[in-house]
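Re: [ENG-882] Designed sequences occasionally contain unexpected residues at chain ends

Forwarding the minimal case from QA. Structure tokens:
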């Protein structure tokens, strides 16, 4: 089932003010309501290669495999939906592709990338991530960070060594503890939740979150809630205005109509209580 006309998507990436090339990569596919942001790392344009391989692998895998599933299917071991398992498989395949490429191309040795992926289906969404690229959700005027950074600084905050404000100013804030392509396998965090009409979801690289506070992100989203292109452009403008020290990517998703799957048990159950 095509989700065109039910979910809006718009993404934009910018080189920033200090970098000479863009190692971020983004993709969005309206038909299946798929959004992807990757933030590459590695010398000799390795980061650019890693993020490009990752985004293309995930886009191709999910687009192909979602054609052959039934929305009510769940994985016996994890309880996750079939869609979530496809997202996990796609990210794992991307990890393999980046890792193997780094082994066979000396110039790309050690390259890697973060990833955040959101897939919308049956009035729900799956978000999966590795690293410190984030997903935020704006609902009823409140902005919430849905993902948890896989970073050294996040671990130190949780252990009480740093406050969030101290971490923002730390020289070590960009050290990630997980990334695509660094090892043969990668641990992927997956969440599933209900998606509501008029929610707005932001997938972004740390070129956004290192430069501007969540309150400014929220204001840009609230003030431009009916125009995702303007909202993304404003977020990038604010990040550049604050210094633009890194590549900047912002991808926004907004359900504008209910999007139940045909004959879905979940949607029939949801309708009873909504």
């Amino acid at each position: 089932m095509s989700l065109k006309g039910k979910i809006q998507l718009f993404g934009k990436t910018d080189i920033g003010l200090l970098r000479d090339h863009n190692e971020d990569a983004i993709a969005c596919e309206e038909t299946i309501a798929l959004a992807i942001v990757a933030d590459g790392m590695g010398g000799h344009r390795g980061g650019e290669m890693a993020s490009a391989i990752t985004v293309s692998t995930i886009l191709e895998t999910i687009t192909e495999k979602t054609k052959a599933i039934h929305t009510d299917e769940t994985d016996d071991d994890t309880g996750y939906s079939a869609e979530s398992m496809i997202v996990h498989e796609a990210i794992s395949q991307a990890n393999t592709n980046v890792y193997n490429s780094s082994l066979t191309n000396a110039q790309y040795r050690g390259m890697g990338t973060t990833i955040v992926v959101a897939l919308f289906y049956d009035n729900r969404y799956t978000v999966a991530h590795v690293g410190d690229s984030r997903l935020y959700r704006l609902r009823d005027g409140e902005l919430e960070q849905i993902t948890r950074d896989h970073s050294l600084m996040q671990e130190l905050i949780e252990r009480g060594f740093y406050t969030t404000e101290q971490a923002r100013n730390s020289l070590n804030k960009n050290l990630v503890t997980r990334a695509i392509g660094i090892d043969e396998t990668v641990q992927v965090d997956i969440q599933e939740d209900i998606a509501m009409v008029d929610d707005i979801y932001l997938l972004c690289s740390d070129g956004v979150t290192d430069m501007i506070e969540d309150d400014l992100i929220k204001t840009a989203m609230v003030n431009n809630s009916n125009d995702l292109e303007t909202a993304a452009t404003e977020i990038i403008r604010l990040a550049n205005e604050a210094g633009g020290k890194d590549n900047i990517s912002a991808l926004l998703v907004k359900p504008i109509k209910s999007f139940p799957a045909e004959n879905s048990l979940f949607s029939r159950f949801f309708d009873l209580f909504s």
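QA comment: On inspection the terminal residues look reasonable. The chain has a mean pLDDT of 92. Proposing we downgrade this to a documentation issue.
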